[in-house]
Amino acid sequence: MEEKIAFKNLHSREYQGHKKKVHSVAWNCTGTKLASGSVDQTARVWHIEPHGHGKAKDIELKGHTDSVDQLCWDPKHADLIATASGDKTVRLWDARSGKCSQQAELSGENINITYKPDGTHIAVGNRDDELTILDVRKFKPIHRRKFSYEVNEIAWNMTGDMFFLTTGNGTVEVLAYPLLRPVDTLMAHTAGCYCIAIDPTGRYFAVGSADSLVSLWDISEMLCVQTFTKLEWPVRTISFNYTGDYIASASEDLFIDISNVHTGRTVHQIPCRAAMNSVEWNPKYNLLAYAGDDKNKYSADEGVFRIFGFESS
């Protein structure tokens, strides 16, 4: 039974702290902390009260020497976070102290990072379409693979035995893990596939494309079962809510679309003032964090992100 949310009664709050635009937002596994990664070369961790007011306390993670493009939390540990940067390093941080505990020097500018759901491995993609898998304990690469096509976002399925790559050819490449043996090529879209999200129940995954569509796939059949058509620009970022009933998607359109996964219909649109870089639902509450290319009236980066879903502003 899906829950019904009175979206029109919900509000967004704004969080300021970065000096340049925010590229990535991500929640920890308990839904109590949110991390933001920015072009200002820092990440920040914010303590978010889902129902409280209070000013959000934040801690700065300093050390990268280039933009922090993507970050992700350890799926099993609420205080460990990994960041990927254009400075060619991947770093592991303790969000309580703000200290970097591990660092790996890789071969290129990192743009994508994701944890295996059991927390043992991290996959990193770089601008040269190279994939590196790190063993989290030793923090050393255990696999490297260069692809002959444009690799965009990467993801594991819930059980960790399948690995997905979205490509510039409009396909989703499905690999068996850990051997990274090709299993399937899904002709998903007529233009490049940019982003992928796995639904929390493990039944579906969704793909966002440059053709402005989001496709929903049944993971056991590898068949497309639904298409979301509300956006008009290339889809940059997508996320399922914690029950798997809703999907948020965003682009250069000046709104974030929230659609019902089962019917394909839009249930709400969050207005935004700029192209969005990252949307992510909280794993426990219906709170959606989002960040984009917001500028102030002097055309300088605002360095903000927002969270939608609060009952009072």
From TrEMBL:
Key words of the record: Repeat, WD repeat
PROSITE patterns in UniProt: WD_REPEATS_1 (PS00678), WD_REPEATS_2 (PS50082), WD_REPEATS_REGION (PS50294)
Residues in WD repeats: 15-49, 61-103, 186-227
SUPFAM superfamilies: WD40 repeat-like
Keyword Acyltransferase recorded: no
Domain of life: Eukaryota
One BP term from GO: mRNA export from nucleus
GO cellular component: THO complex part of transcription export complex
A Pfam family annotated for this UniProt entry: Beta-prop_THOC3
Assigned protein family: Belongs to the THOC3 family.
PANTHER family linked: THO COMPLEX SUBUNIT 3 (PTHR22839:SF0), THO COMPLEX SUBUNIT 3 THO3 (PTHR22839)
Name of this protein: THO complex subunit 3
